[in-house]
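Risk mitigation, structural track. In case the binding assays with protoporphyrin IX containing FE fail to produce interpretable data, a predicted complex structure has been prepared as a fallback.
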Amino acid sequence: MAAVRAITSVPVDEDGTVLTSYEDVRVALFTRSLAQHAHKRYERGNILEDVVMQLHLPAHKIRRRAENPLYRRDAVLDYERVRFPAVIDTTLDTAIGSGVRDALELAHLLTMVLSAHISGIDVDQADIAALRRLVELERVFVQGASISDSTRDKQDVISDVNVALEEFDDEFLAFARARREARIAEGSLTIENANDLLSVLLLQKDGLGLDDALILREVAFFLESGSHTSSLSVAGALTELFAWIAEHPSRWASLQEQPQARREFLQRCAHEAIRLYPVVPVLRRRATEPVAIGAQKFVPDDVVFLDCVAANRDTSVFGTDADRFDPDRIIPEGVPRFGIGFGGGMHTCIGRVLAAGVESSGSRSEPPILGQVAQVLEALVVRGVRPDPERPPVPDTTTVRKRLKSLPVLFEND
Ligand code: HEM
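Fallback model:
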């Protein structure tokens, strides 16, 4: 087995080889003989057990094929143009009106509405108390999903996850499930009109070999994957944007006169922040057969860490100033602006377009899909968001990952 080599982002807790160049990480993601190994040691009895992200061929292909249609282009456009603007109008203004002045919490509440809808949890977008409760549960699920990086006792994390899963079932899932099962029984909910994960799983339960506990975990996993990642990306982008505005006041003033250019600029800010601060800093894989990646050779059961932070700052791809936040960065053709922030290959993020959209092709007939991270940024900017000079950002100390617990802000009339 290969020895651990230096890693530039977070410490790892297992023997393995760390790949750090953009090309090695990209190739590894597309290599079918490298299977998922995310937090394998703590998988049993934890939230990720047998969820789509943990599966390998052919089980992964079957589950993913069932779930992919939820993220079709027309569904994403419906979220972007119809559902999310309505969420912003109600949820954001209600939350700001009720005194919330933490950009991370606001982003969480907004992205939670969409995440809940896609997962199949029926929640009223103006019901801030219910959304807060979902965010609270999600914070526990996240600790389980990133357990290797937790600074807490791992068994405590797993028992908290199990309590949270039970509460989530009692308070949200059981009701949503009963409604869908009644519609399936009367024939009005079918695979043709199913538009959320829970419906898709219930309709194909037998074919996919799912039991009730796995349905619960899969829904909880989607809920946390959708909202936690997007809201942290909003916070990362906003922090960098505040610094950028201070350095470029006249350019920012001129962007205020051009709403479409500003939206596209904010999308580039979102992508640049996802590149610099990938929410999942290290992806874990295990060799299933002998395989070589660049100069490294692996035998079955070797563990391979893909250091996304290092890869996304690879100067041979992103330039000598790769460490800097630059929304105007020129990127080589074929390389996404967000690097490998959404992974790649068979486990590539299922919600990527929903979160990050699609950049403008330059054609007027096809406006870009902004994605929910840029849409939240735009909604905050329109309401005059600015840093709170009295309250600095607060880091999250429950994890070795560098992330925020809160980002205090003020709005136009504060
Ligand atoms: C900025 C937002 C997001 C980021 C940075 C992000 C990042 C990632 C990354 C890096 C992976 C690959 C994990 C691996 O290869 O081990 C992934 C997978 C996944 N993401 Fe996301 N994600 C985001 C938003 C979303 C959203 C909105 C959803 C759903 C509503 C979602 C659902 C998933 C799922 C289900 C997987 C597992 C896919 C599979 O294994 O086949 N993510 N995400």
